[in-house]
Specification:
It is a single chain. The chain is mostly helical and about 250 residues long. About 65% of the residues lie in helices and about 10% in strands. It has one domain (about 1-50, about 95-250): Rhopdopsin 7-helix transmembrane proteins, CATH 1.20.1070.10. The protein is built from 8 helices and 6 strands; from the N terminus they run H-H-H-H-E-E-E-E-H-H-H-H-E-E.
Length: about 250
């Protein structure tokens, strides 16, 4: 959860740092506040699971199986005409629908809009004064590099999280609770959860591959050095923004 909120806030930081470059120094001062806010939001979203998941044990013939199981409240709806009952998991369904919206659909929308405006801003920027051909080529190369990185970040996020969101929607809104899941669902759910976690693993490599400053900061962190080194973001190195974009912290 924290990784999703982090990606969303990074998109917002880049948006304000490029589109509203003169206010970048104001945003920088809120870095610590943003980190605390990300963790508070993550704890808030995950907190219901503390109360509605319980430890269970099942004793088989030769082994004891231990696992955590949902303990969400259920409503039993009786139909006197058909003399049947329906188990309504409204609380669980509401929570997981909220999770899908808060951790996938909203972040996707925010990142898409922010990166789209950034790309348009970069490509529509006017180069002040006269520049030699070498400078223009360097600027064009940097712009393409920024666009590719932003597209990859958003694409990887959607690829990694879409299967898990699909499994949640299927389990809560498509599957009939009166019957067991199909055989394909268990391995698919297992795969989708690890694919979502894989997004957090791959993101540092994406940033390191496109941003030398991030790579140097990460190497410095691994060596136990000072990580508070100031640097210009890759997008701020685009020539048309060098005069207005401020420095930000790792």
């Amino acid at each position: 959860m924290a990784s999703v909120f982090t990606l969303t806030f990074i998109a917002c930081d880049r948006f304000f740092g490029i589109v509203y470059a003169m206010k970048a120094h104001f945003i920088e001062r809120r870095a610590s506040f943003t980190i605390v806010l990300i963790w508070l939001l993550s704890i808030a979203v995950a907190s219901p699971l503390i109360f509605y998941r319980g430890y269970q044990e099942v004793q088989w013939k030769d082994v004891t199986e231990s696992f955590c199981m949902d303990t969400w409240p259920v409503n039993i709806i009786h139909n006197p005409e058909t003399k049947t009952s329906i188990v309504d998991h409204r609380a669980r369904r509401t929570y997981f629908m909220f999770v899908c919206v808060a951790l996938f659909f909203v972040p996707c929308l925010v990142m898409f809009c922010a990166y789209l405006v950034i790309i348009v801003t970069l490509w529509s920027a006017q180069v002040p004064g006269e520049r030699i051909s070498k400078d223009i080529k360097s600027q064009t190369k940097m712009r393409k590099r920024v666009v590719v990185m932003l597209v990859i970040i958003l694409t990887v996020f959607m690829i990694c999280w879409s299967p898990l969101v699909g499994s949640l929607i299927y389990a809560e809104f498509v599957h009939d609770n009166l019957h067991q899941f199909a055989q394909w669902y268990a391995p698919y759910e297992f795969f989708s959860k690890y694919l979502a976690h894989f997004n957090s693993f791959i993101n540092p490599f994406i940033y390191a591959g496109f941003n030398n400053n991030f790579k140097k900061g990460f190497q410095n962190l691994c060596r136990g050095g000072d990580t508070r080194t100031r640097y210009n973001t890759m997008v701020s190195r685009v020539d048309s923004f060098q005069s207005s974009t401020h420095m930000t912290k790792v």
